[in-house]
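Q: What would this chain look like folded?
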Amino acid sequence: MISRWQRVELNDGHFMPVLGFGTYAPNEVPKSMALEATKLAIDAGFRHIDAAYCYQNEEEVGLGIRSKIADGTVKREDIFYTSKLWCTFHRPELVRLSLESSLKKLQLDYVDLYLIHFPVSMKPGEDLFPIDEHGKVVSDTVDLRATWEAMEKCKDAGLAKSIGVSNFNRRLLEMILNKPGLKYKPVCNQVECHPYLNQSKLLDFCKSKDIVLVAYSALGSHREKKWVDQNSPVLLDDPVLCAMAKKYKQTPALIALRYQLQRGVVVLAKSFNEKRIKENMQAFEFQLTPEDMKILDGLNKNIRYLTLDVTADHPNYPFSDEY
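A: My prediction, written as structure tokens:
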């Protein structure tokens, strides 16, 4: 049985816990809930906390982490904290400023992992999604390789222990990997990944390059109206998943989490509900048979919940390619 403290070694020698706690919440959820949920997650045993500038709750998440350090539950080095560079900060001169602004909100000296959140560059400014008079996202022309060089400088400065990417496809990953003078490879690629979108080709490609795949929306999706097609199927209602949950005396969510762990994928579990936060740690307490893993592989339908169609006409839009 793999232990709840299991970590995976990244290609730069640092270690990442294989189960992470996601902190995104829709706008209508009070920010104070991120503080409480972060504390609950650390108490439940989570040591990997996944957050981002654009979630707009890093102050609360940082306070949650610091309060658990202050009460002796954990030390700073026990926590693996991820933040992300938003699309309006892709210009190389803005990368470090953005990371420093996250660190200031968190009141931490460094992040363990800093990711390029999404490969589509947008016009710098206060708006997370700068929109023109026609309701179109105002994009920016930035060479992501220059953004990556600025990320490398953040690592050299000790502001981020590791650097990686999120929502990159093979083409975009290769653009970074083949960059002349590349100093550090991305340690990971964080993407939507669940039994309906199992990303097997991207997973194989990442493994071949010693890049860890990290799964978000691993339990399907929060189904926020603004972003997700309300007619898309609910993953956790899937009859195969539910039958397997019965067989193992677990929840469908735990089957979905366990599936990723056994494929060598680092998986993020997001819940602000105390019972479910504790329950998600039980993904380490059972094992799926190879036959059942194959059955779960067979659920793949290439259903992507989060498509960010508003950016689809940008040359770096990642979801038009096969993988």
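Strands lie at 7-9, 15-17, 19-22, 48-50, 80-85, 111-116, 160-166, 188-192, 212-216, 266-269.
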